[in-house]
Write a structure and sequence with these properties.
Elements: H1 17-39, H2 45-52, H3 58-83, H4 85-104, H5 109-137, H6 143-171, H7 176-179, H8 181-195, H9 209-228, H10 238-260, H11 274-304, H12 309-315, H13 317-337, H14 342-358, H15 367-395, H16 401-437, H17 453-457, H18 461-493
Helix pairs in contact: 1-5, 1-6, 1-8, 3-4, 3-5, 3-9, 3-16, 4-5, 4-8, 6-12, 9-10, 9-16, 11-15, 11-16, 11-18, 13-15, 14-15, 14-18, 15-16, 16-18
Length: 510
């Protein structure tokens, strides 16, 4: 495997200070847009469903973006080495913006879901290419500060996403949560191309196309099976059996291909390392918890509690506060002690408590109590996030650090996409059953529930109360399931091997 030089400053292109700042600002803006699109739709989902219909497909508005961005992310780094990072950044941004434009003009749910997938194909590249571009323009000793800036961008996006999405729904329309990407994305791309000078260097890679294809097929089939099974199709139907068979064929083929690939997307040798294996399990579980909570809580706030999309975005801020506070605590603890084993145990325990609190949500739950519930969930997740990446980077050989980090992110993203699909299927099935029991009140024929906050306000008090109760009753099983999943993560955390953190640039072999 050919690799680019790691540290000598003379290999860096001659970028002036002004150009470097322009590149950093442009990349930060692109990262903000890409990360916003993982959360910005959450507060708009009730309105989108009411407008386009298709409660059964609600979770796919989120899942399509996460899944497509996850699958293509490992390829973008190698494509950037092979064809030039500036060229691949332009392609990535173009796909993202075209997808955004198509989302904005979507006229039904399938069209929106396909457009979100196209958006994800572009957005997935931005996450990976940003790290590579920094290596081209910033000397090694200064890269940590820039990574801190990018970490701040992700934190900001988790606050701004639900809030901005809610504001657009209230004051313009849900279409603008996608249109807004276009002017900012074009400006960022122009800034990047103006400030970034290509090195002209190319690194030859054996790109694992078949690995990417089989992984895509396996994950897509698994997500479709968990999303459609028991609702759109019976579990014993040929369609579900077919998706199950396709899942097995895709994932087994992926493992076989990865065992033989010259440069695999996911080197199987990493699983011989305790730290990588256990943190991948933990990351998968935390992805389920994170995206599950973020996606469905705005539905509770807007439909059951009856607050506006903007207010629901504000109500989600305590979760971010919990994540930031706990992440800061965890980071300082690891820096001071060089240890991390206890942190995921604390995080999973707190997460279980937070999810248990969410099983007690009611239409009349006070804002103070709701804030306590979600700040607890946020604190649990925040204790875990820094450990998953830091422990892996400290343990794997340096030449595998980038691959191992990307693979860890893949497990978290896959957990998120599957979690949203499963939770969405449970919610849709229970909600439609509840509405059918009410004679389809508030929904379309057959009980296909479709309700926006504005529509809720126009209903009689008695009907509003019935729908609000149906929403919380449909959400409770989601959080009971999340408790069981988090308990599995807690058990796994006890098996995490602690390799003392070092300040060396290279990792440690186990």
């Amino acid at each position: 495997m050919s690799t680019a030089p790691e540290t000598p400053d003379e290999t860096l292109p001659a970028h002036g200070a002004r150009n470097v700042r322009l590149v950093i600002m442009s990349i930060a803006l692109l990262l903000l847009l890409a990360s916003l699109d993982q959360t910005i739709v959450s507060t708009a989902l009730p309105t989108i469903v009411a407008d386009l219909g298709g409660l059964d497909h609600l979770s796919w508005v989120v899942t399509a973006y996460i899944l497509s961005s996850t699958v293509v992310a490992p390829l973008y780094g190698k494509l950037g080495d092979l064809y030039g990072r500036r060229n691949i950044v332009v392609i990535s941004v173009t796909l993202f913006l075209v997808g955004s434009a198509l989302c904005g003009v979507a006229y039904n749910m399938p069209f929106l879901i396909l457009s979100r997938a196209l958006q994800g194909f572009g957005g997935g590249g931005l996450f990976v290419l940003a790290l590579s571009v920094i290596g081209d323009v910033i000397p090694p000793k200064d890269r940590g500060k820039i990574q801190g800036v990018f970490a701040g961008v992700f934190s900001i996006s988790s606050v701004l996403g639900p809030l901005v999405g809610g504001w657009f729904v209230d004051h313009l329309s849900w279409h603008w949560i996608f249109y807004i990407n276009i002017p900012f994305g074009i400006a960022a791309m122009l800034g990047f191309t103006a400030g970034f000078h290509p090195t002209g260097k190319r690194v030859t890679h054996a790109i694992d196309w078949w690995g990417a294809i089989t992984l895509s097929v396996g994950l897509a089939a698994l997500t479709l099976m968990t999303s459609l099974g028991g609702r759109t199709y019976p579990w014993q139907s040929p369609e579900i059996y077919g998706l199950g068979a396709l899942t097995i064929i895709g994932l087994v083929s992926f493992v076989i291909i990865e065992a033989r690939a010259k440069e695999p997307i996911l080197p199987l040798s990493l699983f011989k390392m305790n730290v990588f294996t256990v943190t991948s399990i933990i990351g998968f579980i935390i992805g389920i918890a994170m995206f599950g909570a973020i996606t469905f809580l705005p539905l509770y706030l807007q439909i059951s509690r009856g607050i506006s999309p903007t207010e629901s975005g504000l109500a989600m801020i305590p979760m971010t506060v919990g994540i930031l506070a706990a992440s800061t605590f965890a980071g300082r603890y690891m820096t001071k002690t060089g240890k991390y084993w206890i942190l995921p145990i604390i995080g999973m325990s707190v997460l279980i408590v937070g999810m248990y609190m969410l099983t007690h949500l009611q239409p009349d739950t006070t804002t103070a109590m709701f804030s306590l519930y979600i700040i607890t969930v946020g604190f649990g997740m925040g204790c875990i996030f820094p450990v998953v990446t830091t422990a892996v980077q400290n343990t794997v050989p340096r030449e595998q650090m980038g691959t191992a980090t990307a693979s860890g992110l893949l497990f978290r993203q896959v957990g998120g996409s599957l979690g949203v699909a499963v939770f969405g299927a449970i919610f849709a099935a229970r909600m439609n059953d509840a509405m059918s029991g009410m004679g389809g009140g508030g929904g379309s024929a057959g009980g296909d529930f479709a309700m926006s906050p504005a529509m809720m306000q126009s209903l009689p008090d008695a009907v509003r109360q019935m729908i609000a109760t149906a929403v919380v009753d449909s959400l409770h099983p989601i959080y009971w399931l999340a408790i069981g999943i988090a308990a599995t993560g807690l058990v796994a955390s006890f098996f995490l091997k602690e390799v003392r953190l070092t300040s060396r640039m290279s990792g440690l072999q186990e």
